[in-house]
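[step 3/7] inverse_fold.run input=structure_tokens len=553
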């Protein structure tokens, strides 16, 4: 008898599992159950479909039941919801979502890939018409219809994570006035505040209004047919529609009823082969608990890449191959109006939450390619590493060009336990229009290696010692334009001629615009017996941090 493999959920994790399994095993029967009308659709494209950047709904559907049948001999049942799993009998109760007809399907191997559901807190008025979540194509169609039929002029987006920010950008793109309400004092909490605020600034430049540090308390319909979002601080934000982007929670109802182990984070517990506590059941995607490779701790992570890779791992194991899922590092990117922000591994906030305080950080602000080639754009790059051995813990970058490339390279090293020294040594492609002979990734590794090896001890702006002597080594005109309060200006050439005005008994913190001249000053001064240290990223890092703090307050 052919092995029967049943897959619940036909999008990222489920569809990739099914297709991989067929490539490995021509003999098994593969069936996908999907409660919605589509399989293998691009949920990541939904905000852009709402924003009319993607204009045809069909472009979001990457494959359909016919394609799965003809190309892979996989049976896809859309509009079929799995309502119960009997793990002892190895059967799944299925309900047709349109007819209500129920049936029972048996399996030898079951894969759960039901995803995660948008969080909809039970707040007063949350069921009012005009309050939308963004998860499926029908959700996006409803939003598009609401906007066009009601000639919507304004929207309130609740939540400043990936979906909230992408929706804000797309609604602005459609010409709506947008207010974004976020409980935290910053948007994109996966990024550290100083790396997230440029995104906020870019959205503000395009008209987005922000209400940060204020949680939503309820919703009211106004007499004019609009909706009011009420906040805990007592403010009322009015919009013709409301988008909820409050995060997601793993869909675990089936797993719980089947008696599968649920992890401490609320996701389905799986081993490195994506097998659940039942040997015949695998689980993948947003619904599972994964291990963070930096902290070693369990977490949830709703990203398409891991879901796809986990689907593949589950398929391999069902087909008898012992492949392993390595864990996650949360590599992600978001773009708004031409500005991208990306990260991999842990930011400072995530490290501290995990109880990891033994880390060092450096900032730099290199160009995406050599400055002499037209069109060079500056990026902000932050690297976190373990001082003891230089192991990479995380990286974040924000800028207009080539952000994904730099974070992807660092992500690959991080996944393989790489160090900042590996970044310094990385051999990367270069021609003037693409990068620099010393690529920003190399450069980041060199700065961090220098800091680690104490060629250039560093002190960041958030840890300036009280007795520090702040030395600005930029030119006088740069100093006159702006400088860190309390600093003394001795331009680098003058410093080289005569450093004798500097104190011998205090730490000297040298800074410049981005950190390079500060580094030269530190090397010079240390060889003359001064306790000199560099402030990585220079005054640009200070300005970013100041701006992020100002946004907070
Ligand atoms: P899903 O892809 O959500 O698929 C789960 C499917 O299971 C659903 O279609 C659901 O209908 C079905 N299902 C659930 N329960 C049952 C049941 N009982 N019976 C039958 N079917 C069931 N990730 C990124 O990495 N980058 C992005 O840019 C990005 N953008 C996103 C934008 C939006 C608007 C959304 C919603 C998500 C985005 N994501 C992004 C996240 C990414 O889409 C998910 O991490 C990924 O799709 C998870 O895959 P999955 O298979 O676990 O779940």
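[step 3/7] decode complete -> sequence:
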């Amino acid at each position: 008898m052919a092995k029967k493999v049943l897959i619940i959920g036909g999008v990222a994790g489920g569809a990739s599992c099914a297709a991989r399994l067929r490539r490995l095993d021509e003999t098994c029967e593969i069936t996908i159950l999907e409660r919605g009308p589509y399989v293998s659709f691009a949920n990541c494209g939904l905000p852009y479909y709402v924003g009319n950047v993607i204009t045809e709904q069909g472009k979001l559907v990457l494959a359909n039941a016919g394609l799965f049948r003809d190309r892979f001999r996989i049976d896809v049942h859309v509009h079929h919801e799995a309502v119960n799993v009997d793990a002892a009998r190895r059967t799944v109760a299925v309900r047709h979502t349109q007819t209500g007809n129920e049936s029972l399907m048996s399996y030898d191997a079951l894969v759960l890939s039901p995803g995660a559901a948008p969080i909809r807190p039970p707040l007063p008025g949350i069921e009012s018409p005009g309050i939308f979540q963004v998860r499926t194509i029908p959700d996006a169609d409803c939003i598009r219809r609401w906007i066009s039929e009601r000639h919507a002029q304004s929207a309130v987006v609740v939540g400043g994570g990936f979906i909230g920010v992408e929706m804000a950008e797309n609604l602005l793109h459609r010409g709506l006035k947008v207010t974004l309400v976020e409980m935290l004092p910053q948007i994109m909490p996966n990024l550290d505040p100083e790396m997230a605020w440029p995104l906020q600034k870019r959205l503000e430049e395009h008209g987005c209004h922000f209400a940060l540090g204020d949680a939503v308390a309820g919703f009211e319909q106004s007499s004019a047919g609009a909706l009011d979002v009420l906040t805990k601080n007592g403010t009322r934000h009015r919009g013709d529609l409301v988008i909820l982007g409050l995060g997601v929670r793993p869909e675990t109802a089936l797993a719980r009823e089947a008696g599968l182990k649920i992890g401490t984070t609320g996701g389905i517990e799986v081993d490195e082969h994506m097998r659940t506590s039942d040997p015949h059941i695998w689980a993948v995607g947003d619904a599972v608990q994964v291990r963070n490779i930096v902290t070693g701790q369990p977490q949830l992570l709703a990203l398409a890449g891991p879901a796809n890779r986990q689907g593949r791992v589950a398929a391999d194991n069902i087909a008898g191959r012992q492949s392993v899922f390595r864990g996650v590092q949360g590599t992600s990117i978001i773009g708004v109006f031409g500005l991208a922000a990306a990260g991999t591994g842990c930011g400072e906030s995530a490290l501290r939450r995990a109880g990891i305080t033994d880390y060092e950080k450096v900032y730099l602000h290199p160009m995406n390619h050599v400055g002499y080639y037209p069109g060079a754009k500056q990026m902000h790059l932050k690297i976190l590493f373990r001082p003891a051995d230089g192991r990479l813990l995380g990286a974040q970058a924000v800028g207009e060009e080539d952000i994904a490339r730099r974070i992807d390279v660092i992500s690959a090293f991080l996944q393989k336990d790489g160090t900042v020294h590996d970044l310094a040594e990385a051999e990367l492609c270069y021609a003037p229009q693409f990068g620099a002979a010393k690529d920003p990734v190399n450069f980041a590794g060199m700065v961090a290696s220098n800091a680690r090896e104490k060629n250039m001890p560093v002190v960041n702006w958030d840890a300036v010692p009280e007795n520090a002597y702040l030395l600005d080594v930029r030119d006088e005109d740069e100093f006159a334009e702006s400088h860190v309060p309390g600093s003394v200006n001795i331009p680098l050439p003058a410093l080289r001629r005569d450093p004798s005005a500097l104190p011998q008994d205090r730490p000297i913190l040298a800074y410049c615009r981005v950190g390079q001249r500060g580094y030269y000053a530190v090397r010079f001064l240390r060889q003359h017996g001064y306790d000199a240290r560099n402030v990585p990223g220079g005054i640009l890092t200070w300005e970013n941090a100041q701006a992020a703090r100002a946004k907070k307050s």
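[step 4/7] annotate
The first helix runs from residue 12 to 24.
The CA atoms of residues 159 and 251 lie 20 Å apart.
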